[in-house]
Structure to design on (376 residues):
């Protein structure tokens, strides 16, 4: 590891710092990063600010450092898109992303670069590996929040602190990014997934609580995180992200069917079985269709809804009919009569679930022209 070493590492480094109203933090941040410049062939600092009205340009101008570049965005907003803008303007072979509020100690950048040179394709400044820590005084809620968020990122990476916004990667890793979706706050997680990193390494950091300036963390940031996880799931595991909601919706549809049957039974006691079963089945199918179109086939909502609904009903009617046939056939056999209903509905439901999912996926929500939108 190179931390604190004065030997020059022959690589060019770009440090990208997204900022919003961080003017008070620039003197110390720039001072501490400046102290690292001798460690590398060259080092540039790119600050991507979203038009803060706290004197950010004046502070940067007063510090007058030719290796520091300020990009002020006036149309786009948001942390992740600011990072992406900074990455795309950077010239270095190694790209570092960090916060402006000095939570991330710039002094470990040397260790991060060393980890890249030793074969990592992504490096995270991590609170949760031996040697890493957070400032005392984190409330239980903030700690729990961070743990739950980390746990939700498990399907995507083995990194223990994927929420960290302190990252390093090679330029070629960044160049391989596909379908970047700059939603939410967790650009590290987005990059590790969309750059298809396979060898992420963590370097311990002590994460300081911000001393100056205001936090931009809010409840809406947490909501955005949930949506971000859903989008990453759909991108990385499209099949399961479709089938699991489809199965859950199917189970809820059975509840709707039984509920409607009971309701009709109360209000229309004289009706024959088929007279209540058909509208109840149609009601359950409508329920399933709307939820499936939203949750299981989110990508295919461009085509006409009526045409899709008719196709959906036609397909779902097949297992329903088989279910009825199997039940009646077994009911005729004296040996299995007591089990007939149960076996019939279990076989029918399992077969129906797979059949419906495959057929609706292919025929109703398939990639026909105008049906499917871009992934994500
Ligand atoms: N360009 C840009 N930067 C932002 C935006 N929101 C936050 N940032 C910057 O992103 C970094 C992280 O934001 P913080 O507010 O420190 O978020 P946090 O570290 O999760 O929370 P605290 O440290 O408790 O405030 C800081 O450098 C912010 O200035 C934004 O909308 N646009
Ligand atoms: Mg912070």
């Amino acid at each position: 590891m190179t931390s604190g070493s004065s030997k020059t590492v022959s690589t060019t480094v770009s440090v990208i710092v997204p900022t919003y109203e961080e003017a008070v933090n620039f003197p110390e941040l720039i001072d501490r990063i400046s102290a690292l410049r001798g460690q590398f062939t060259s080092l540039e600092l790119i600050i991507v600010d979203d038009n803060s009205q706290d004197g950010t340009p004046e502070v940067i101008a007063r510090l007058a450092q030719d290796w520091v570049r300020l990009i002020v965005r006036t149309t786009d907003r948001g942390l992740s898109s600011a990072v992406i803008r900074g990455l795309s303007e950077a010239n270095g072979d190694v790209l570092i992303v960090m916060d402006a509020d000095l939570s991330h100690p710039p002094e470990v950048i040397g260790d991060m670069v060393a980890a890249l040179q030793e074969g990592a394709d992504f490096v995270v400044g991590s609170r949760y590996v031996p040697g890493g820590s957070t400032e005392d005084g984190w409330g239980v809620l903030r700690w729990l929040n961070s743990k739950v968020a980390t746990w939700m990122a498990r399907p995507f990476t083995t990194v223990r602190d994927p929420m960290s916004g302190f990252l390093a990667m090679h330029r070629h890793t960044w160049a391989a990014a596909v379908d970047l979706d700059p939603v939410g706050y967790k650009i590290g997680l987005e990059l590790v997934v969309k750059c298809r990193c396979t060898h992420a390494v963590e370097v311990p950091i002590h994460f300081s609580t911000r001393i100056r300036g205001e936090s931009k963390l809010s409840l809406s940031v947490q909501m955005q995180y949930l949506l971000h996880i859903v989008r990453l799931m759909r991108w990385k595991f499209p099949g399961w992200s479709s089938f699991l909601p489809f199965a859950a919706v199917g189970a809820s549809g059975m509840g709707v069917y039984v509920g409607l049957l009971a309701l009709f039974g109360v209000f229309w006691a004289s009706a024959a079985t088929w007279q209540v079963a058909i509208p109840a089945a149609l009601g359950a199918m409508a329920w399933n269709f709307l939820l499936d179109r939203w949750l299981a086939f989110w990508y295919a909502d461009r085509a006409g809804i009526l045409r899709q609904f008719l196709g959906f009903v036609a397909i779902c009617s097949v297992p329903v009919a088989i279910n009825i046939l199997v039940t009646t056939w077994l009911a005729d056999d004296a040996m299995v009569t007591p089990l007939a209903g149960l076996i019939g509905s279990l076989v029918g439901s399992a077969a129906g679930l797979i059949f419906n999912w495959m057929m609706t996926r292919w025929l109703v929500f398939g990639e026909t022209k105008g049906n499917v939108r871009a992934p994500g």
Observations:
- The chain has two domains: 9-236, 238-364.
- The chain has twelve helices and nine strands.
